[in-house]
Design goal:
Elements (H helix, E strand, L loop, with lengths): L3 H12 L3 H67 L5 H27 L6 H17 L1
Helix pairs in contact: 2-3, 2-4
C-alpha cells in the first residue's frame, strides 16, 4: 500500500497546477508583459488624441452647419417677405446671402460626413496590435 502512494502523488503532481512554476513563468515574462502593456498604453494615448481632434472637428462642423441652417432659413423667409412687399432692390443682396449660407451649409455637411465616416477607423492600430498578439499567443500554445 505504501508503494502505491508515491506513484499516485507523482501522477497527481504532474497533472495538477504547480503555482511555483507558474510564478517562475510570470516572473520571467513580467518585464516583457509590462513593456508590451506600456506600448499598448502609448498607442492608445496617441489614437485617443487623434480621436479627440476628429470629434472636435465634427463639433465645429456641426455648429457651423447649425448656424448656416438657421441663417439659410432666416434669409429664405426674408426673401419671401421681400417678394411679397414687391421691393426689387433687396433681391440681389438677399439672394447673395442665401447663396453664401447655402454654400457654407454644403461645405459643413461635407466636412461632417467626411469626419463621421472616419469613426470606424478609430483605434484601428491598437485593435490590430491586440489581434496580432492574440494570434501569436494562440500559435505558441
Amino acid at each position: 500500500m505504501s508503494q502505491d502512494f508515491p506513484e499516485s502523488t507523482s501522477a497527481s503532481a504532474s497533472a495538477s497546477f504547480n503555482p511555483l512554476s507558474a510564478l517562475r513563468l510570470l516572473r520571467s515574462a513580467g518585464k516583457a508583459l509590462l513593456g508590451q502593456a506600456g506600448l499598448y498604453g502609448q498607442l492608445a494615448r496617441l489614437e485617443w488624441v487623434e480621436e479627440k481632434h476628429r470629434l472636435m472637428k465634427m463639433l465645429v462642423a456641426g455648429m457651423l452647419l447649425f448656424a448656416c441652417l438657421l441663417c439659410f432659413m432666416f434669409f429664405a423667409g426674408f426673401l419671401v417677405l421681400a417678394l411679397s412687399w414687391n421691393t426689387p432692390y433687396f433681391f440681389a443682396a438677399i439672394i447673395l446671402m442665401i447663396a453664401i449660407y447655402a454654400l457654407g451649409l454644403g461645405i459643413a455637411m461635407h466636412i461632417l460626413k467626411t469626419h463621421a465616416s472616419q469613426g470606424e477607423k478609430s483605434f484601428m492600430a491598437t485593435r490590430q496590435e491586440f489581434a496580432a498578439d492574440i494570434a501569436l499567443i494562440k500559435s505558441k500554445l
